[in-house]
Design goal:
6-stranded mixed beta sheet, 4-stranded mixed beta sheet, about 400 residues, 2 domains, about 30% helix, alpha+beta, D-Amino Acid Oxidase, Chain A, domain 2, FAD/NAD(P)-binding domain, 22 strands
Length: about 400
């Protein structure tokens, strides 16, 4: 069988199929980049391990279920294989009465999704957990955390390769044909075009999964509506009033328009726009700690990332910066008042594989080709859910 895409999802699936399930099938992973280093979605993110508090079951049943399961699996994997991670916990902070309505909805979703040990707390408890964070109320979510995403994918790749998976790097899929029960895949490499046959294909091409789906099935409904997420950073040791204890600190989730501008509206208006697909739902510009090597061990570092700030990219490779330090400052100062624009410097940008017209992950067989499985629209919480997504997909295959 063939997996297209050696990002986090492709490597997680290769690991699961080749190892834990003990499949005897030959597995080939095709990747257009020159190395498995998570250069697209898989590394250009804050490395947050989510808990499952955002995803309504009525429109996002896969995100709700696979995030919760993936959270547990990811901590277990990282502990077993020494991947740097930390269960930091998360604060989600409401700073005014309108934001409290949004917070109540997140609390409701967390309960429906059975996210463990979520607490609603007040100003005193907020201050005890993070003295430089202020708010009227907050949710404390202890199962949230962070992971070093590039080392996670490298470990998955190594384990899959040790189990016999073949990774074809610098090979771009340019054609897929179908004859009988087999597929003919055309790949372009430095040495020219080659064609090989395979019985099953899994499309895990991330940002390009819509294009791969369209090659085999021109009537495919999937269109990636790419969203750029830019981030900044600051150093929490710079001053006492911006020092942090190591938690992820988030605002309440909000709506944003396709151009990246934030919706400021009562919760009832947001909910109506969101369920009619006129705005997207965002976790908002948040503060996330990072992991650094200190001596011979990985610890919470001095750098805190601030983001993501959403904008519309020119294309799927547009990692340019469009936001300045003042924008990030304006987005976090209500709950982190000690920060100043001059504390903030630009960090990086990533592009999310947001699927137009779909809220949930899409993990399904192509209706015309039963041995062709699409994994598309795997945006957040794809990192957290990666091992659970691999298990779910494996159950479709075996």
């Amino acid at each position: 069988m063939t997996i297209i895409g050696a990002g986090l999802i492709g490597c997680a699936l290769a690991y699961r199929l080749s190892g834990e399930l003990g499949t005897k099938r030959d597995i080939v992973v095709i990747e257009k980049n020159n190395q498995v280093n998570a250069e697209n979605q898989s590394s250009r993110n804050s490395g947050v391990i989510h808990s499952g508090i955002y995803y309504p079951q009525d429109i996002g049943p896969l995100k709700a279920a696979l995030c919760l399961k993936g959270n547990r699996l990811l901590y277990g994997f990282c502990k077993r294989y020494g991947v740097p991670h930390k269960k930091t916990g998360k604060l989600m902070v409401a700073t005014d009465k309108m934001e409290e309505e949004y917070l109540e909805d997140v609390y409701r979703i967390a309960g429906q999704n059975r996210v463990p040990d979520v607490e609603m707390i007040g100003p005193r408890e907020i201050s005890c957990l993070e003295p430089n964070v202020t708010g009227k109320r907050a949710l404390y979510i202890p199962t949230a955390g962070i992971v070093e995403p590039t080392l996670l994918i490298k470990k998955l790749h190594q384990l899959a390769e040790d189990n016999g998976v073949i990774f074809l790097m610098e090979n771009e899929v340019t054609g897929i044909g179908h004859s009988g029960s087999d597929f003919s895949i055309t790949i372009k490499s430095r040495s020219g075009d080659e064609v090989f046959k395979t019985h099953m294909v899994v499309n895990a091409a991330g940002l390009y999964s819509d294009e791969i789906a369209g090659i085999i099935n021109p009537s495919s409904p999937y269109i990636i509506d790419a969203i750029k997420g830019e981030s900044a950073k600051f150093y929490c040791s710079a001053r006492e009033d911006i020092k942090m204890s190591g938690l992820n600190v988030y605002p309440v989730p909000f709506g944003y328009y396709p151009d990246g501008e934030k919706l400021v509206a009562p919760f009832s208006e947001f909910k109506n726009l969101f369920y009619h697909g006129r705005v997207h739902k965002s976790a908002g510009v948040h503060l996330s700690p990072t992991i650094d090597m200190q001596g011979s061990d990985y610890m919470i570092g001095d750098t805190v990332t601030v983001g993501p700030a959403y904008s519309r990219p020119r294309d799927k490779e547009d990692y340019s910066s469009t936001r300045d330090a003042g924008y990030y400052h304006s987005m976090v100062k209500s709950f982190f008042p000690g920060i100043k624009p001059e504390d903030i410097s630009l960090h990086q940008a990533g592009i999310r594989a947001k699927l137009s017209g779909f809220y949930d992950f899409v993990i399904e067989r192509d209706p015309g080709f039963k041995n062709f499985i699409n994994l598309t629209g795997i945006d957040s919480p794809g990192l957290t859910a990666s091992l659970a997504i691999a298990g779910y997909t494996a159950n479709l295959i075996l």
